[in-house]
Design brief:
With 625 residues, this protein is mainly alpha-helical. The chain has 3 domains: 148 residues, Roll (CBS-domain); 204 residues, Clc chloride channel; 197 residues, Clc chloride channel (Orthogonal Bundle), CATH 1.10.3080.10. Helix content is 58%, strand content 4%. The strands form 2 sheets. Strands 1-2-3 form a 3-stranded mixed β-sheet. A hairpin with a 7-residue loop joins strand 5 and strand 6. Helix 1 crosses helix 5 and helix 5 runs antiparallel to helix 6. It starts with 38 loop residues before the first helix and ends with a helix.
Length: 625
């Protein structure tokens, strides 16, 4: 009846059949190969460019709005100039300005949208991961408005977080208005967010990296190209408004050598510890606010009390503080004044952000990290004056390492510090320091300042990205070659009798059906064979219901698995492109799962080697005199 080899498929003759009843092999369904890019990529890129233009304008409008609210709140004048609140003459009354801003933000969040709370990037990440990249349209307006009020009344935040969130909302809004896929909408959201960061800092390359590390969760041409073009566009818009000067201009630094480079790596590790503590402090404050017996609408005003009190003693802690960052990396603020600035900035920022107001985290983290790096650099210079340590370089490494440790966006942190200062010789110290901070953060903290809030809602957030293992394994490697095939002209009576003999192969659930020339006609399952509606006088060819689902030997297992899902089948006939009618193997869902065995075995060997080495070290320690 049947043989264990493809070439041995038998035929019992059977009744004459009408071959037109069987599906044509030409209709066989094979996995579709998705191109790297297509005309859709050009379409999404064009939309991204438009969104980037809008994000660049929004960045300028939000900056002007922050300037207007700052001038009205602290100086009583109508001006859009972007000023620091530090020069105010309000005295103790300065405490009430942030509180008023916090009250307004709380009201907007309560009656407008609770989604405006937070610093922007985690909310965008959540929409990408679990919301189909659908940001509520009202966020496009409410987020920048609430952030402008919070920052303009002294909130210790950067404008970049709200601008990034607004750019993401713009991209999502366009994606919701048009008929596009969820993946394309995610690309538009990431393009808008990256464009917002570029328009704020003039850092297009690091904005692309930020999108990859924190928003896209992938590296594919169809998503990277639109984001990159959006960042180029946003940079062009920024140049048109503010020129080409770096946002944190600083004197040139010299290339470090020898021990100095090692000191910068150690400095990065220490700042990484501080990044972990800062992250835990922010969410610790948030937990304290959660225990308050009052509605969360009032929390921003309560947190703003700390902002006002700290601002009374240290006015430079209020507002975005971009001038503080520039002064720190330029070495213009040193000693006790610097310590007071970054410590009080941290206190003000942690309490205010933990209260759930609207603001950003990048600028505060850069201020805190830069200040800590400068202090650590000055300390190292005092003990080791001959190592060639530059305090400005230490501040720059500290600034980037703080963000790398808190967000674990390693490449973003390195390139950002370079792009915003234009110091090419800093790349090597930045890479070492940020890598050390990344290592320490990964050892000490499960989640980051960007993902902790999402993780607390019981949702798993990916922290590592790797190539899909199934994409690396070809079908020819995993397919079963010992295939049991049935003859197309055999009657159901003969086939059912064969099953009753309990011969080899009768335990399978599906079988390829071949004609007299050993060519594939279709696929039949045990259920089809024993279906009472099928008369025993019918041949297998006559009961075939659909064209066969096939897979080529050079397809990947990922393509095969996707094809199984799309076709809603449990198995695929394996063929070659040269002879697509000739079955060379059989691929089931179990075969695909079994392909993971090699990966698990390799990982097991690696862990076993580590454990064996640890045991040997322990034993050697026991025998030491």
């Amino acid at each position: 009846m049947a043989d264990s080899q493809i070439s041995g498929a038998s035929t019992t003759g059977g009744l004459p059949v009408d071959t037109s009843l069987a599906p044509a092999l030409e209709a066989a369904r094979a996995p579709s190969q998705i191109p790297l890019v297509s005309l859709r990529t050009i379409y999404i890129s064009a939309l991204s460019i438009v969104i980037a233009c809008a994000a660049g304008v929004v960045a300028r409008v939000l900056t002007a709005l922050i300037g207007l609210i700052t001038n009205l709140s602290f100086f009583g004048r109508f001006s859009f100039a972007f000023n620091s609140p530090a020069g105010n003459h309000l005295g103790a009354y300065v405490i009430f300005v942030p509180v008023l801003g916090g009250l307004i933000v709380g009201v907007i969040a309560r009656f407008g949208s609770e989604a405006i709370r937070g610093h922007g990037i985690p909310e965008a990440m959540e929409q990408v991961l679990f919301g189909g990249s659908r940001v509520p349209p009202r966020i496009t307006f409410l987020k920048p408005l609430s952030a402008a009020i919070a920052i303009g009344t002294g909130g210790p935040f950067g404008a970049e977080g709200p601008i990034i969130a607004t750019g993401a909302a713009l991209g999502s809004l366009v994606g919701q208005l048009l008929k596009i896929t969820a993946d394309e909408r995610k690309t538009l959201l990431a393009a808008g967010a990256a464009a917002g960061m570029t328009a704020t800092f003039g850092s297009p390359v690091s904005a692309v990296l930020l999108a990859i590390e924190l928003l896209l969760f992938e590296y594919r041409p169809r998503s990277i190209i639109p984001v990159a073009l959006a960042c180029v566009t946003a940079q062009a818009v920024r140049i048109a408004f503010v020129g080409t000067m770096p946002i944190f201009a600083m004197p040139n630094v010299v290339q470090p050598h020898g021990y100095a480079l090692g000191m910068y790596v150690l400095l990065g590790a220490l700042v990484g510890v501080a990044a972990v503590l800062a992250t835990r402090a922010v969410y610790g404050v948030e937990d304290l606010f959660d225990r308050l017996p009052i509605h969360w609408m009032w929390w921003p005003a309560i947190g703003a009390v700390a902002v006002g009190v700290v601002g009374y003693f240290a006015p430079h802690t209020m507002g975005v503080g971009y001038d503080n960052i520039e002064n720190i990396v330029s070495g213009n603020i040193l000693g006790r004044a610097l310590m007071v600035l970054f410590i009080l900035k941290f206190v003000s920022w942690a309490i205010s952000l933990g209260s759930g107001t609207s603001g950003g985290t990048l600028a505060p983290l850069f201020t805190i990290g830069g200040g800590l790096g400068s202090v650590l650099g000055a300390t190292a210079l005092a003990f080791f004056p001959n190592l060639g340590i530059d305090i400005r370089m230490a501040a720059l490494v500290g600034m980037a390492a703080m963000f790398a440790g808190a967000s674990r966006a390693l490449l973003t942190s390195v390139v950002f510090a370079f792009e915003t200062t234009r110091q090419p010789v800093s790349l090597l110290p930045l890479l070492g320091g940020c890598a050390a901070a990344f290592l320490v953060s990964s050892l000490l903290m499960r989640h980051t300042i960007m993902t902790e809030k999402i993780a607390r809602r019981g949702v798993r957030v990916l922290a590592e990205y790797s190539i899909d293992y199934l994409d690396q394994v070809l079908v020819r490697t995993a397919a079963t070659r010992d295939v049991v095939a049935l003859a197309a002209d055999d009657t159901l009576a003969a086939v059912r009798a064969w099953f009753g003999s309990h011969a080899v192969g009768t335990g399978h659930q599906g079988f390829p059906v071949l004609d007299r020339d050993q060519h594939l006609v279709g696929v039949v399952t045990r259920r089809d064979i024993f279906d009472p509606a099928n008369l025993e006088t019918l041949s297998l060819r006559q009961i075939l219901k659909r064209p066969p689902a096939i897979v080529f030997e050079d397809n990947s297992l990922r393509e095969a698995a996707d094809h199984i899902v799309k076709e809603n089948v449990g198995r695929l006939a394996v063929v070659t492109r040269e002879e697509p009618r000739k079955v060379t193997g059989w691929l089931t869902r179990s075969d695909i799962l079994s392909a993971h065995r090699q990966r698990l075995d390799d990982a097991s060997l690696s862990h076993r080697a580590i454990n064996i080495r640890a045991i040997r070290l322990n034993r050697s320690a026991e025998y030491q005199p």
